[in-house]
Amino acid sequence: MDSAIHSVDTYPLKGRKVLLRLDLNVPISGKGENRKIDDDTRIREALPTIKYCLEKGAKLILCSHLGRPDGKRNPEFSLEPVAKHLAAALDTEVLLSDDCVGDGVHQIIHHSKERVILLENLRFYPEEEANDPEFSRELARLADLYITDAFGTAHRKHASTYGVPSIMSEAGAGFLIKKELDYLSRLIENPPHPFVLVTGGSKVTDKLKAIDNLLNFVDKIVVGGAMAYAFLAAEGKNIGVSKCEKEGVAAAAQILAKAKSRKVEILLPVDHQIVFPEKDANFTSPSRIDDIPAGAMALDIGDRTIKKFSDAIGSARTIFWNGPMGFFEKEQFLAGTKAIAHAIAKNDGIKVAGGGDTLSAIAVCGEEAGFNLLSTGGGASLKFLEGRGLPGIEVLKGKGAPVKTMYNIEGDFS
Fold first, then answer.
1. Domain residues for 31?
2. In 99, 121, 143, 307, which residue has its Cα 20 to 30 A from 258's Cα atom?
3. DSSP code at position 286
4. What is the pLDDT of residue 405?
């Protein structure tokens, strides 16, 4: 079977209807008419593919999910703010359809003058997450060609990400997915060494499979955030009342053992910013300490750890970062994450970051320009790095027969 995944720019688009699956699941605050988009990164990342399709004469049917409406129509999860934001960004009318399937949608597509139509939230339909075959067929009937640029949902076997491209004979990927795959594939296909994995956040178990696979490629693993306390606990160190996932200690012990057998160095914090929650419930009076005493909670790495981690990062030629170093949302505990973000950004190697909290932290630190890729799919990027492929990417293999291809996944990752 042809393993090529074809790019949007390999297809003729003039006069064709393109069903473009995007990840427009942006953070929105406020209620009712006062709902506003807090971060439009995912919208901005989708613009190159949208603009290309319009320039080449396509009629676009955009579709996305937003939040978790649990298969029920809920105005608080409507894509209306997204439609308005898109219209301003594209300087063109964006028509929001009340429905995703049915005769009304077909009428809109065939008779409207607008060339950009946004279907209402896919997850208003329980059939979407169930990958319902009939719902997939109804979506597929809307267009001549399927293109996905929704990397953030590529690990989901949903109707719009898997069912539709399974049915349609012509399907491909947009420019954002091309960029994601180009850089993420470098991490597990002969990456330049030294390769340093920087990981943090709260749960070891969520990242266990990805770390396990990356142990085949990395030279060092830098561990911060709440994850670090699971590793320290696994080494028998006191962690006080620091946040620590119960199952994470066993997972950390597993990683430590495998890393030792594969001669991969794991760097853990040697000093910490701590508070005593019983005395300081609002975390306003942190102090630096080497060993975490009983009753203390560690919320950031200390100065000695920052230097230790930064030195390892400074010598790297490949870096993947997933997870902040501490409770960065609070100014008193931002220093560790900020220092690591800066150390990575100034490195001149390949630098990839993934995960919503990580990208938020990078934005807070103002270091976005220092990365080759800020992956829009935290869960998807980790799944990809497990080395087993993503359903929403694998299903595109061999679809259509354009002249040139953008990406080729060798081997069987099923």
1. 4-173
2. 307
3. -
4. 41
Active site residues: 42, 203, 356, 379
Task: Evaluate the CA torsion angle 37, 40, 44, 47 in order and state its sign.
Answer: negative
Which pTM does this prediction carry? 0.87
- Residues belonging to the chain: 414
Tens-place pLDDT, residues 46-70? 999 999 999 999 999 999 999 999 9
C-alpha distances out from residue 270 to 223, 237, 267, 288, 290, Å: 11, 11, 9, 11, 6
Q: Long-range CB contacts (< 8 A, 24+ apart) of 25-34?
A: 25/64, 25/65, 25/66, 25/67, 25/152, 25/153, 26/66, 26/82, 28/66, 28/67, 28/81, 31/76, 32/75
Q: Which of 173, 190, 225 is the last residue of a domain?
A: 173
Q: CA-CA distance, 217 to 186, in Å (whole number)?
A: 11
Amino acid 202: pLDDT: 84
DSSP state at residue 46: H
Amino acid identity for residue 79 in this structure: L
Among residues of the chain, what percentage have pLDDT more than 90?
A: 83
Report which DSSP code applies to 148: E
